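Before the break, one more example. Copy the sequence into your notebook; we will annotate it together after we see the structure.
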Amino acid sequence: MNEVRSQEDIYRALHAATGGQLFTVTVIDRAAGLARRVYTSHPDTYPVSGTKPIQPNDWTRHVIDNAMVFVANTVEEFAIYFPDHALIQSLGCESAINIPVVDGDVVGTVNILDKALCFDEAMIRKCTSAVQAHSDQLLQAFASDGV
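Here is what the structure looks like once it is written out:
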């Protein structure tokens, strides 16, 4: 029997599987040109109602257009793409991994931020494997979120 889980349960289970000090999930709204946050581990700092414009840059081409994982192990590596890098750093996060969620096209991202130099090859495998293992549940949650 398949257990029915809420979107919140799915996102929390994925956060537990990947770890990370800051964990968010966004869905891509191509028509509006926005990434919409549907889950956050830090609702006061990064509320679920938050959006970010999708900028035409190397990060977008890498993650959204080409469905490739983005890894930055220092603030300097992600600051050029994340205008909120000072806020991220103030939370103790100095590395980031953005993992695309794909359903034909990229429909969302799982975003994990942690201490500097956190994302070595083993951690990258752990995070990408967890997202892959939860992909069907993520897509169901995205559908519930109106994606």
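The two ends are 26 Å apart (CA to CA). The beta strands are 22-29, 34-40, 51-53, 70-72, 95-103, 105-114. Try to locate both features in your own notes.
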